[in-house]
Here is the input.
Amino acid sequence: MIDKFVAIADAFEGVADGSTILIGGFGASGEPTQLIDALVEQGAKDLTMVANGAGAGGDFGISRLIEHKRVRKVICSFPGRKALVFAEQHKAGEVELEIVPQGTIAERIRAGGAGIPAFYTATSAGTLLGEGKPTEVFDGVTYVLERAIKADLALIEAWNGDRWGNLTYRSTGRNFNPIMAMAAELTVVQVQHKVELGDLDPETIITPGVFVNRMVHIPHGNPPKF
Amino acid sequence: MTDKLLFENVKPRSRVEIAKRVAQDVTAGWCINLGIGIPTMIADYVPASAEVIFHSENGILGMGTAPSEADQDPWLINAGKQYASLVTGAAIIHHADSFAIARGGHLDLCVLGAYQVSQNGDLANWAIDGGESAPAVGGAMDLAVGAKRVWLLMTHLSKAGVAKLTENCSYPLTAAGCVKRIYTDYAVIDVTENGFEAIELVDGMTIEQLQRIVDAPIRMA
Here is the structure.
C-alpha cells in the first residue's frame, strides 16, 4: 500500500547541509510555513533557497529560515520590502543573492521537472540580468540561454491530498507549488485536508502523486494577514 | 491645487486622469496585465461590458475589482500582494502557465510604469543603477518582452525634475525596444521608427512646450 503521509518530525529525515531547496508560495499565500518550521528544527544549513521572494516579514516562513541563518544563497525574483532579515544578512555579506526574472525562475523550475536541461528565452536579453549568458538569434530576435533548476528538496503547500500524493490547491495559493513539486529529488507537502484515495475527481487533480514523496497533514487554516 | 503650474494655463493630467485616458484606448475582449501601482487603476475605468480579461502574474486570469474588507479571501491575492477578486469566467493557473501567457505573446496589452524610456522604445523600470544591495525585478522583464503591446503610464519629469523620456536610458534596461505608446501628464506619445511622436496634447499645451520636458526630439504625428 502506498502511503506518503509521515509525522512532521520525519518529514526532512536525510536532508543534508548544502542542499538546494525550493519553497512554494507568493508572499505568505501558499507558503508552507509549518514545513519551514520543521526544517528549521531538523537543522539543515548552508542551503541554496529558490523561491519567489526572500521572506514576507514577521517571524514565520522564509523570514524565519533566514533569521536562523540556514540559507547561504537566495535565488529569487523579488526579495521584497518586508524581507528585512534577508536584507540585513545580504548587506553583511552573509547570504548571496541571485536575481532572476519571475517568468524565467518559473520556467527554469518547470524545465528542471520536465528533464529539459536548458532553454532559450527573450526575457533579460540586452539587460544586466542577461549579461554573460550565451545568446542565440532566432527569426531576428535575440534569446538568452537559461539553465534548468533541479533541487534536492521542495517544500510545498497544498489544499487537499490523498495518500498517493495527488494534490489540489487553494486559489492563488497554487502559484509556484505545482512546478516546484516536479523539480526536486525529495518533495515534501503540507496539506490542509487529508482525503481518502478516490475522493479527488481525477479531472481536477493539479499535481499527480508521482511528483510527491512525503506528506504531512497540517490543518493550519488561513495564511497570516499582511 | 497649490502646486505652481509648469506651463501657464496648462493643467497636467493627474495619475487618475492618465489612467482614465489609457482606459479609453483599451479594446473590448483584450487580455491585459496592469503593472503594480498606478496602472492597476486603469481597470476601474474599463466597463465590465467590455469583457476585458485582466491577468495577474501570480496566477489569475480574469481578475475583478478590489474586494471590500468583508469580501477579502486570504487565499486570493494579486501580484502586488493585495486582496483580489475573480470575475465570472476567471481561471486560476500556476506560475509557469501564468508566465507562458506573458512570455508566449498571449497578452494583448501590458501597461507599466517607468523610470526612463528612450526614443527607440527601450524601457528602464526595475533598477536605478544596478548597484542596489538587493534589486528586485519581479515579472517586469517577462511582461515587457512578451506582451503584444507595451504602453507606459508615467509622468514626464522625475521628482528631481529630470526628463524621463530620453534619447538613451542611463538606468539598467528592463527590455530593449519594447514600448509602443506612452501616456503622460501632458500628452499621449507613440514610439515610432522616427522616435517620439505626440498624438495628443492636453488642453492648451503646445509641442514646443512638450519638447522642453522631453530629452530627445519629439514632434506631432
User: Anything to note?
Assistant: The mean pLDDT of chain B is 95.
